[in-house]
């Protein structure tokens, strides 16, 4: 009978110590690997989304720059009548300044004369391309319009690169079309200037037009060079590309532009290459297990402890940052690559936290400064004069008028102290009416005023607080107060127009002299000092409206000396809650 072999005490001890610890370390490594890969996928999806948004944002900026250059050139055309050395010089300057993506400029007069830069391209301007510029500009009705993608040998990539013609109809001083202005934009360079790069893995940025057709794409890699890890035949249209990405499990993010371009951007990341760097963790676990089998338990434990602790610390730190804790710090005392990685991670989170805090403080300070400056110009003197008027009414006025005056003042103070930064339009109109009532009493009813109620669909529309009072105050003090020979009239009305909501403030006062009116209009356009105390309140309101809604909104002034002044306050149509209306 054969003798059965039994493990000795040493073998049992090795098994009892090694097997559980080996399994434990193996599973810990596997869990850390899976969690890290999962978090990596999540963060990379967010990173791709951020990159696609960045691309659309940069394209919008460059679109605005082109628009600004075309507006400047339109002024030059109006000054020179569509010909002359000044126009050619302006075209050459525009192309040189935007040489990275603007390849040419052309102006076609109504009589068919063509002025362009560079001349070796526009000199051979074909009837087909000239017809494209004319038809596109006429169809747009004076709006900046981008053509569908065309192929032109003037582009960066050589023969027949993707380009687009941006057109605008130029009108003379009489409002009649005088010609057509066009910029030729190299879309390949346009996309290359706007494309984002992740830095640690390959990315491919694809640009689609308003019809979801591929315009161009660009590939970037940390190793340099050029190649595309996605074939163009798979992404010729946006629906085809999205279907291909879903089927292949490719990381991607889509971002649409809300400007007149209506383009879409897809940023695709080869995150699988980044994930492949974590695959050796499984092999390390098996290697440690094999070392343990031959007696290197101590080495196994040491190596396991040496590597897993900093990895887990980094994982916890990344998890805290993902939850929004930008103050999270990773404590790794090792002086090797893992320690350096932890130090760089800590520096990154600190810089991000400082940037976020700085941006928040800057925006808050800007809003607070604008509001405080405006309020400080409205409240002190007005309150003093109102109280002085009430004091006089106590001695010579009727009790009914005194009660009415006190009630109006209470409403004004309550409205001023209300913390709502965007009250309904009807409340702002009521506040302006109360203010005018006090001023009318103060000046002995030297002027009449009328506040027309807002249309029902606009009554609850939110507007910036105290946007109307400085305008009517300006009309009273500078327009009606100095009026002699007739009684002043002031009317406030609200109209819904195609360009938005317009509040009109009209008076029959002394008006504004032409020179001062031009300085005031220039200050409203440039945001500068109107060089006169008369326009400070209007400039403040204009700046606040632009800060809230953009440069297309604000004030405009029309005035005739001896007849009166009309101030138009242009606002976007908004729904309750501050959301822009769908057509805005």
From TrEMBL:
The cross-references to CDD domains, in alphabetical order and at most eight, read: HAMP
> Reaction(s) catalyzed by this protein?
ATP + protein L-histidine = ADP + protein N-phospho-L-histidine
Q: What is its EC number?
A: 2.7.13.3
**Keywords noted in UniProt:** ATP-binding, Cell membrane, Kinase, Membrane, Nucleotide-binding, Phosphoprotein, Transferase, Transmembrane, Transmembrane helix, Two-component regulatory system
The GO molecular function terms of this record are:
ATP binding; phosphorelay sensor kinase activity
List the GO terms this entry assigns under cellular component, sorted alphabetically: plasma membrane
- TM annotation in the entry: 284-307
Q: What class of enzyme is it?
A: transferase
What is the recorded membrane topology of this protein?
Answer: Multi-pass membrane protein
Q: Where in the cell is it found?
A: Cell membrane
Q: Enumerate the spans annotated as Histidine kinase domain.
A: 468-575
Q: Which residues form the HAMP domain?
A: 305-357
- Asked if Nucleotide-binding is a keyword of the record, the answer is yes
Q: Where is the signal peptide?
A: none
List the SMART domains hit by this protein, alphabetically.
Answer: HAMP, HATPase_c
PANTHER family in alphabetical order? SENSOR HISTIDINE KINASE YPDA (PTHR34220:SF7)
Q: What is this protein called?
A: histidine kinase
| Native source species | Paenibacillus lycopersici
């Amino acid at each position: 009978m054969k003798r059965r072999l039994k493990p000795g005490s040493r073998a049992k001890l090795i098994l009892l110590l090694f097997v559980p610890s080996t399994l434990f370390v193996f599973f810990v490594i596997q869990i850390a690997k899976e969690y890290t890969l999962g978090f990596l996928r999540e963060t990379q999806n967010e990173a791709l989304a951020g990159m696609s948004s960045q691309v659309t944002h940069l394209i919008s900026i460059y679109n605005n720059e082109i628009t600004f250059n075309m507006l400047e050139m339109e002024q030059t055309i109006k000054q020179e009548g569509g010909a002359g050395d000044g126009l050619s010089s302006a075209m050459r300057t525009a192309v040189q300044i935007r040489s990275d993506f603007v390849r040419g400029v052309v102006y076609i007069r109504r009589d068919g004369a063509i002025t362009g830069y560079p001349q070796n391209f526009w000199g051979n301007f074909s009837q087909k391309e000239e017809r494209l510029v004319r038809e596109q500009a006429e169809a747009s009705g004076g709006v900046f319009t981008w053509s569908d993608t065309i192929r032109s040998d003037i582009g960066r990539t050589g023969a027949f690169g993707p380009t687009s013609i941006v057109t605008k109809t130029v009108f003379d001083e009489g409002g009649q079309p005088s010609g057509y202005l066009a910029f030729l934009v190299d879309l390949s360079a346009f996309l290359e200037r706007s494309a984002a790069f992740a830095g640690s893995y390959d990315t491919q940025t694809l640009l689609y037009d308003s019809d979801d057709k591929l315009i161009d794409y660009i590939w970037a890699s940390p190793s340099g060079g050029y190649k595309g890890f996605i074939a163009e035949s798979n992404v010729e249209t946006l629906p085809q590309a999205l279907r291909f990405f879903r089927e292949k499990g490719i990381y991607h993010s889509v971002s649409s532009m809300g400007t007149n371009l209506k383009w879409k951007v897809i940023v695709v990341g080869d995150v699988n290459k980044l994930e492949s760097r974590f695959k050796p963790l499984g092999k390390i676990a098996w290697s440690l297990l094999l070392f343990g089998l031959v007696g290197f338990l101590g080495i196994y434990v040491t190596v396991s402890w040496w590597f897993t602790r900093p990895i887990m610390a980094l994982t916890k730190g990344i998890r805290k940052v993902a939850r929004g804790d930008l103050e999270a710090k990773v404590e790794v005392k090792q002086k090797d690559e893992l320690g350096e990685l932890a130090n760089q991670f800590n520096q990154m989170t600190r810089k991000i936290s400082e940037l976020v805090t700085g941006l928040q403080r800057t925006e808050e300070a800007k809003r607070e400064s604008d509001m405080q400056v405006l309020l400080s110009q409205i409240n002190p003197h007005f309150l003093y004069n109102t109280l002085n008027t009430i004091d006089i009414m106590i001695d010579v006025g009727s009790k009914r008028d005194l009660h009415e005056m006190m009630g109006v003042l209470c409403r004004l103070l309550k409205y001023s102290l209300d913390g709502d930064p965007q009250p309904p339009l009807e409340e702002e109109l009521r506040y302006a009416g109360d203010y005018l009532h006090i001023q009318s009493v103060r000046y002995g009813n030297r002027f009449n005023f009328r506040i027309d109620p807002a249309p029902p669909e606009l009554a609850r529309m939110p507007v910036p607080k105290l946007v109307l009072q400085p305008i009517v105050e300006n009309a009273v003090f500078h327009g009606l107060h100095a009026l002699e020979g007739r009684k002043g009239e002031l009317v406030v009305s609200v109209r819904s127009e195609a360009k938005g909501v317009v509040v009109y403030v009209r008076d029959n006062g002394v008006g504004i002299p032409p020179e001062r009116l031009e300085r005031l209009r220039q200050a409203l356009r440039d945001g500068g000092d109107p060089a006169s105390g008369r326009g400070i309140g209007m400039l403040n309101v204009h700046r606040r409206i632009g800060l809230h809604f953009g440069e297309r909104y604000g004030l405009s002034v029309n005035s005739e000396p001896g007849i009166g002044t009309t101030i138009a306050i242009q606002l976007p149509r908004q729904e309750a809650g501050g959301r822009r209306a769908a057509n805005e």
